[in-house]
Amino acid sequence: MIRASERTVIVGGGFAGLRTAEALRSRGFSGDLLGVSAEARYTYARPPLSKEALRNPDGVGAPLPTTADVRWQLGVTATGLDVTGGYVELDDDRRVAFDAVVLATGVRARHLPGPIRGMALRTAEDAEWLRSVLHGTPGRVVIVGAGFVGSEVAVAARSRQWHVTVVDVSPSPLATALGPHVARWLWEQHRAHGIELRLGDPVVAIEKAEARLHVLLGTGDKLIADAVVTGLGARPNTEWLDGSGLDITDGVLTDAAQRAVTTGGTALPNVVAVGDLARTPTRWADGEAVRWEHWAGATTDAHRAAAALMGQNLPADVPPVFWTDVYEHRVQVIGLPKGVESEPEAGPRGFCVGYRAGGVLTGAVAVNWPQRLPMLRRELCQRAAA
């Protein structure tokens, strides 16, 4: 338990770190809160970067309002963590001492190998650059990676009259995240809007030929493009934690209270990990440790971590939720869509598909039906309580 006179260092200037600072203050921590952020701007919202930010420049990268009193040091990168000594090493050769530390360095975009990697979309600067391209003369854009970012960039590009081709090595992208039925429905919406899909085709390389780009596929085909955008998922920023003794296999392993776990299996009482960086066991995945990489998950992590550091009772475990837009449609997910898929249930403007394992609801996806979510949430929470 940290005391009011002590210092908590938050490493990472993203949403999860900011929400943890707010949660600590709301739970009575009045000590020194020091934030270290590699980015040179204050915390901003990332989900809009692949949505409205590509269509509307207003507010891109604008600081999120907050009531937390944090002394942020911007443009500074953490390079090491000494748990025993109680300090964080920075790239300007300083050491910052802590009584407790919040690990919130998040993730970075994965890239294709080779000298030409395409445009990724992870930061506000990425969104500003991509928007400037899409708002230029329409041409041909190839999107490598048919995840949520790829889908949302495709919508933005079509709205600017670009010819769009989406390529993914998986023959059924987003089926794990949305379930097979909704994933098929989503890609049908893209086809209906004129998007070409090359699913099940691996990308071998990107080459430059005069003023255009050639995307080479494993089939031997070649796609001509004026721009290439990659949405290949994310890699946890854990390199700075090498040698710390923490388990950093695919993120920072934590216990259910967000306390970082060492390679020896010990949960550290004064080191917590939150947000995209954290790999936390959850009942929603049958106790498996997972990284959610969603906005709502960062808030849940923040409150659990703050409670653990303050020695207070943990908040109730809530089912994960996230959403995406595809043209005029809103797709909302609650829980984990795995198990037996139900027949679609028709709603006033859309539909809902549920997933059950052993007859128990594990998750659901609602399309254009937000009123259905509270009932699904209650059922999931009743299962958790039982």
From TrEMBL:
Residues 322-383 form the Reductase C-terminal domain. Residues 7-285 form the FAD/NAD(P)-binding domain. The keyword RNA-binding does not apply. Keywords: FAD, Flavoprotein, Oxidoreductase. SUPFAM superfamilies: FAD/NAD(P)-binding domain (SSF51905), FAD/NAD-linked reductases, dimerisation (C-terminal) domain (SSF55424). Its cofactor is FAD. Gene3D superfamilies: 3.30.390.30, FAD/NAD(P)-binding domain. Pfam families: Pyr_redox_2 (PF07992), Reductase_C (PF14759). The keyword Flavoprotein applies. This is NAD(P)/FAD-dependent oxidoreductase. It comes from Prauserella oleivorans.
